[in-house]
Amino acid sequence: MMIQVLKSKIHNVKITSTELNYIGSITIDEALLEAANMIENEKVLIVNNNNGERFETYIIKGVRGSGYIGLNGAAARRGQPGDELIIISFATMEFEEAKTHKPWLVFPNAFNKL
Fold first, then answer.
1. Complete domains list, the chain, with CATH
2. CB atoms within 10 A of CB 93
3. Catalytic residue (one of 8, 25, 68, 89)
4. CB-CB contact of 84 with 48 (8 Å)
5. pTM over 0.70
């Protein structure tokens, strides 16, 4: 049996920018992606702690070390600069493997830095 489990989480980063006139997605500082074992184009679930919005999109790699977290396209309507987000990705694996799986958890500081 295959199940979905938490693979990676970036906890409580702040939106730094929104860009409505964009194709869509979330741009994330490359250093945060690397720490969370996430990659460009990976599907993610976004939770906005300020307004309760939950939505799915895909990752675009941002400038390493910039602290940049940008909502693009339609996602830009789901939050505003300063809102805190939780960025989550999942993996599908065998039930027995999932029992011992350890997710990558990242807790950036107030400036979205490691």
1. 2-93 (2.40.40.20)
2. 15
3. 25
4. yes
5. yes
DSSP letter for 76, please: G
**Annotated catalytic residue 22:** no
Q: Which of 17, 22, 58, 66 is catalytic?
A: 58
Contacts of 21 (CB under 8 A, 6+ apart): none
Q: pLDDT, tens digit, for every residue of 22-47?
A: 987 999 999 999 999 999 999 999 99
How far, in Å, CA of 42 to CA of 62, rounded? 14
Q: Please list the residues that pair with 2 across neighbouring strands.
A: 94
Task: List, for residues 44-61, the tens digit of each pLDDT value.
Answer: 999 999 999 999 999 999
Beta bridge partners, 4, equal: 92
Query: What's the mean per-residue pLDDT of the chain?
Result: 97
